[in-house]
TrEMBL record:
<comment type="similarity">
    <text>Belongs to the glucosamine/galactosamine-6-phosphate isomerase family. 6-phosphogluconolactonase subfamily.</text>
</comment>
<dbReference type="Pfam" id="PF01182">
    <property type="entry name" value="Glucosamine_iso"/>
</dbReference>
<comment type="pathway">
    <text>Carbohydrate degradation; pentose phosphate pathway.</text>
</comment>
<dbReference type="InterPro" id="IPR005900">
    <property type="entry name" value="6-phosphogluconolactonase_DevB"/>
</dbReference>
<feature type="domain" description="Glucosamine/galactosamine-6-phosphate isomerase">
    <location>
        <begin position="21"/>
        <end position="250"/>
    </location>
</feature>
<dbReference type="InterPro" id="IPR037171">
    <property type="entry name" value="NagB/RpiA_transferase-like"/>
</dbReference>
<dbReference type="InterPro" id="IPR006148">
    <property type="entry name" value="Glc/Gal-6P_isomerase"/>
</dbReference>
<protein>
    <recommendedName>
        <fullName>Probable 6-phosphogluconolactonase</fullName>
        <ecNumber>3.1.1.31</ecNumber>
    </recommendedName>
</protein>
<dbReference type="InterPro" id="IPR039104">
    <property type="entry name" value="6PGL"/>
</dbReference>
Length: 267
């Protein structure tokens, strides 16, 4: 049973689940509904994945009914962030998604847009932005009418205990990046150090963003990102996820939600 689902004043929704199994069932249903709506509206579904625990939480999409009901041929896959390692390396977000998800559903191989793993982080970010530009031009990826940024149908994020999302880490100058769509870091505090990442303007231009957070190690970061903690606490990267026109949903398990202020959470 879901413990709590509440819409906040600013259009965000926070969903809290007693059991991981329920969270992942609901998440699969949510993704399949967005896919259906997007295919109906635009003929395609452009989704960007992160790495980490998120991937195992979307695994139900590979099972019935979704394995059969989702229009996989219309899916285009991107990575919100990627570690700059070979695609067959254990640290690769591509490999993680491929092994646990993409290889189990009939996605068209040419619709899977992973990074160039043979070049530097800087060049990989540049190449990836170029790929995205081409697909915006042909409207495989929609475009935001407010920011000129790509408008992904869905961006899926995890969050670290330090409040990072994608490869946007706290107190990093990358958080101020306004011009690039995809940028790089060579000093990630979470290994491996070299990564490429979507920038905040791209994340905040998406039609839908879901932040999926589980486990007690993330409870404090979830509280700081979701609750109103006043102007004295500098916003974490996760708090800076505020889609301009899109919809934001937080999917939390009970442990990750254990430090939220919300009074209704225990109802
Ligand atoms: O490449 C990465 O490291 C991920 O894309 C990263 O942004 C991840 O989503 C968070 O670190 C949460 O990871 P966990 O859910 O595994 O804690």
């Amino acid at each position: 049973m879901m413990a709590y689902s509440g819409a906040k004043e600013d259009g965000r929704e926070v969903k809290i689940y007693e059991y991981l199994d329920e969270l992942s069932t609901d998440l699969a249903e949510y993704i399949s509904e967005l896919s259906e709506a997007s295919v109906k509206e635009r003929g395609v579904f452009a989704i960007a994945l992160s790495g980490g625990s998120l991937i195992s939480l979307i695994r139900k999409l590979c099972e019935a009914p979704y394995s059969k009901t989702v229009d996989w041929s219309k899916w285009y896959i991107f990575w919100v962030d990627e570690r700059v390692v070979a695609k067959n390396h254990a640290d690769s977000n591509y490999k993680l998604a491929k092994d646990a998800f993409l290889s189990k559903v009939p996605i068209v191989p040419s619709h899977v847009h992973s990074i160039n793993d043979t070049v530097s982080a800087e060049k990989a970010a540049e190449d990836y932005e170029f790929v995205i530009r081409q697909l915006v031009r042909t409207r495989v990826i929609s475009v935001s009418d407010v920011s000129d940024c790509p408008k992904f149908d869905l961006i899926l994020l995890g969050m670290g205990p330090d409040g990072h999302i994608a490869s946007l880490f706290p107190d990093h100058s990358i958080l101020d990046e306004k011009d690039e769509w995809v940028t790089f870091v060579t000093d990630s505090p979470k290994p491996p150090p070299e990564r490429i990442t979507f920038t905040l303007p791209v994340i905040n231009s998406a039609s839908n963003v879901a932040v999926v957070v589980t486990g007690s190690s993330k409870a404090e970061a979830a509280h700081l990102a979701i609750d109103d903690v006043g102007p004295d606490v500098p916003p974490s990267p996760a708090k800076m996820v505020q889609p301009t026109k899109g919809k934001l949903i937080w999917y939390l398990d009970k442990a990750a939600a254990s430090k939220l202020d919300c009074t209704k959470c225990s109802e």
